Each structure stands twice: as C-alpha cells, then as structure tokens.
Amino acid sequence: MQFDFSAKSGLLLIFFVHGLVFCFLLLKKGWQHQDKASLWLSLFVFLCAMYIAPFMLGYAGWYSQEFSRNIMFYVPFQQLLLIGPVIYFYTQSLLNKSFKISKKDLWHFLPALAYFGYTLVVFVTDQLILHRYYFYADGRDMDLDLWYQVAGLVSMLVYLYLSLRYYAVYKKIAFEVVSFADSILFIWIQRYLLALVLISLLRVLFFILNPEWDEFGSKFWYYLCFSILFYYITISGYANSVQSVIPLEAALSYQETPLHVLEKGNKGPAELVNLSEWKHKIVQIMQSDRLFENPNLTLTDVAEKLRTPPKQVSQIVNQGFQLNFNDFVNQYRTEAILEKFQHGEHHQKTLLALALECGFNSKSTFNRAFKKSTGLSPQDYLKNQA
Q1: pLDDT tens digit sequence for 198-211
Q2: Domain ranges of the chain
Q3: CATH second-level architecture of 7-249?
Q4: Model confidence over 98-125: pLDDT tens digits?
Q5: Which CATH class is domain 254-385?
Q6: Does Transcription regulation appear among the keywords (predicted)?
Q7: What contacts 24+ positions apart, CB below 8 Å, involve 128-136?
Q8: DSSP line for 211-269
Q9: How many other C-beta atoms lie within 10 A of the C-beta of residue 155?
C-alpha cells in the first residue's frame, strides 16, 4: 500500500508514530512499576494516535485505493466514546492511590462497546454476506459521520466535567486534611486538564465553523492542534510521576460527622462536644508542642495528639475556627514568622530560611499564606514596618 507523503500527511505521521512509541513506553513503565496511571495514560495515547489516523491516511491517499479504503472503512480507528471514560479513570488513578476499576464502572464502556458491535455488523454485512458496499454505498467513512462525531464530543465534555469535579473534590479534601496542600495539588494535573479543555473547545469551534466533519481540507488545522495538545499530554504525563498522599475515601468521611457527636472509640454512648473546650485543647497543643513547625503535619497527627478521631478534629477546626485545616496551620506558621520579624531575625537570615523554620515547605507556599493572612507580601510587610 502506498503512502503519499505531503506536508499534511507527513506532519500527522510524526505525531502518530511518536504516539505509538510513547504508548509502548508508558505501558512498559506501568507494567514494571505497577503504576495504574501510566497504564491508563498509555491507553489514552493509543486512542489519540488512532484518532488522527483516518485523516493522516486520508491525506496519504488511502481512501483512493480499494484495499486500503476497506481498511479505513471497516477498522474503527476513532473510538470517540472510549476516550472520555479513559480520561476520567486516568484522573482518578492519579489522585487516588487506592483506585481500581470495579464492576459498577464497566457501564462507562457500554457506549464504546455498542459502537464496536455496530462496526462489526457493518463489516459482516458488507464483506461476508452481501459482498458489496451496503452501509458504505455513499463511499463515506462512518467514523466521520456527524452524529458519531457529535456523540463523541458530548461524551468527552461529560467525562471532562466529571474529571474536573473529581479534582475539585480532591483539592477541597487536601486543604482539609494536610498542612502542605499547595505542594500536592499537582500542577501537572491542572495543566493536563487544561489541555483537555482546549481540545474540547477546539472541537466545538470547528463544529461551528465546519460541521461537515468528513471534509478533509477544512479539518487539517484542527487535527494538527489536537496532535500538538495530545503530544504535550503524552510527554508531560510520561515525565511527571504523581503519587497522591491523601487516602481519598477515608478523607471524605471527615466532613460527614455532625459536630455535636463525639464517638468514644467504637464503644460507649456519644457525648456532646464542648466546642470552646476542644478549641482550647487544639490551640494548646499547637502552641506548646509547636506542631505547626512540622512541614508534613496532617490532620491525623493532630488527632493522635488529642486522642480523638480525625473527623472530629476536622469538624472542630472548620466550625470552631471557620478555617480549613491547611489555612489553620498556616496561620500559626505566619504568626511565628511575624514573631521572628519582631525579633529582627530577618536581618540575620533569609525569608526562606525563616519560612522553613516555621514549617512552610516552599517559598511560594509561604508567600501565599503570608499574604492571605496579612494582606501583604512579606517584602511589603517589612517595608511598612521599616
């Protein structure tokens, strides 16, 4: 089979080949390191490479030859109803280290399975029963039919929304259970989701400007932009190894217990919590034990000190101090920094050194927390005090 090299087919071929290479590398990485996220990303990259294949091969002249045209017609290259679920499960595997697909998750794959069954019926009818084009009598690839392309776009938008919502839940929980939330919000995941949003916006834009999806000449720029974005996701995903430190399911329960209930272990009657008393206890251990100086302080650490369930500590901090756990601890760290300023320690040490001594784990986190607490950056605050 010939492949007519041109600027369009050649450019898409580069992305296609690189996609297959990285698909293999991610598959190998996931298998060797038991990394579920890499396995899901490998499948996503493979689907993206297959997604651009009809246009790459179309520009290379495959629709003009009978043998290659049959490959294009009867091989379902564009699995549009599968890309969305893969994006969703990849996001979950990144943010939830205990994630594993369950039986109830299999329904997400039913639309893709139904379309695959439909393509199989088309192949059997045309090639094995009628021995002529019946479904393909119009000579147009059904993968590029408007109804299927629209269904694929809707599917991707739905699963992108679910992925963004899942990340929003993770982000909320991070601020509730650890004091170093800024460092585990994973800039890579934000950028990956942003890239997917851009892909979706591009598809919507091209649907509006050119609804005839099987017109090759008018869709090249979309497929080129798609290739660049999926290549970015591929390279960045391969280079960034994300390991979540939050037990997502357990953390969700921290927000579910009413404040007035305090369980005594697993036994005994529930007691009414004296909110002011528990607030005093938390303040006392934060000040006397200086727990905030631990850059890896978690809600569980404080709960163990108080000998009470983590979910109770979360409720007391939320309702008693009107803060999430991350901001609550950073407030103490900021107060410690201000105390050091008063003693003139900023003349002997750098701001970063002082921040690290007080429990901050990075300069950016320190600057954000300080400004949130005082309304000024550390530099501006010191200028005003001069």
Answers
A1: 999 988 888 787 76
A2: 7-249, 254-385
A3: Up-down Bundle (1.20)
A4: 888 999 999 999 999 999 999 999 999 9
A5: mainly alpha
A6: yes
A7: 136/73
A8: --TT-HHHHHHHHHHHHHHHHHHHHHHHH------S-HHHHHGGGSS-TT-B--TTSS-
A9: 20
